[in-house]
Design goal:
globular
């Protein structure tokens, strides 16, 4: 089971960097099964090499350049299980506004706290930068906006979104990539 597309590129790049991106080994439960890290294990690096062979987007060079910047700035977190990458999160700094750009967890690992721990790691990074961490996601997909609301995020009022040029830029970029703005919603969480 592999992370698809862009997730494969991120996992490969993280493992290629061979550096810890999350401060400390922190299992999510006593005797935890997985930990947040930068993919330092040999198994994770080998899996990442295999992931890199997956079909990746045509804009991969641009994506990898952006990822290199995110790695250098400490805005990428990876969850490993037994040395294999099972999830990741990527954050942006939108001119001072922390934004959760992407989070992905293998479906077989859903419901085990992996995504929640990744979100907490991003929230820890965001703390002190701004009062809120934002994200954009699908409004009606049950494992998207409804799940985030269940986790304590709040749906942003459209007037608040329209008043923030940074979020409007995110919306415009998503539309350029074919995402329907009417199907998307912005959420925020206090950090």
């Amino acid at each position: 089971e592999f992370l698809p597309g862009a997730a494969a590129a991120i996992a490969a790049r993280v493992c290629q960097q061979r550096r810890r991106l999350y401060a400390g080994f922190q299992p999510w439960q006593a005797g935890g099964q997985w930990a947040l890290s930068g993919g330092r294990s040999a198994t994770a690096r080998a899996q990442a090499a295999a992931l890199a062979q997956a079909q990746l987007p045509a804009s991969l060079p641009d994506a990898l350049a952006a990822l290199d910047a995110a790695l250098a700035e400490g805005r990428v977190w990876v969850a490993e299980l037994d040395g294999a990458v099972v999830g990741y999160a990527l954050a942006l700094d939108l001119d001072g506004q922390p934004h959760l750009e992407q989070i992905s967890v293998l479906p077989s690992r859903a419901g085990r706290g992996v995504g929640r721990a990744l979100i907490e790691a991003v929230a820890g990074w965001a703390a002190g930068r701004a009062p809120w961490l934002t994200l954009a996601t699908y409004r009606d997909v049950e494992w998207n906006a409804p799940l985030y609301v269940h986790l304590g995020w709040e749906v942003m009022a459209e007037d608040d979104v329209r008043a923030d040029a940074r979020l409007l830029a995110v919306r415009a970029e998503e539309a350029e990539h074919g995402l329907d703005p009417d199907a998307r919603v912005f959420l925020r969480r206090r950090v």
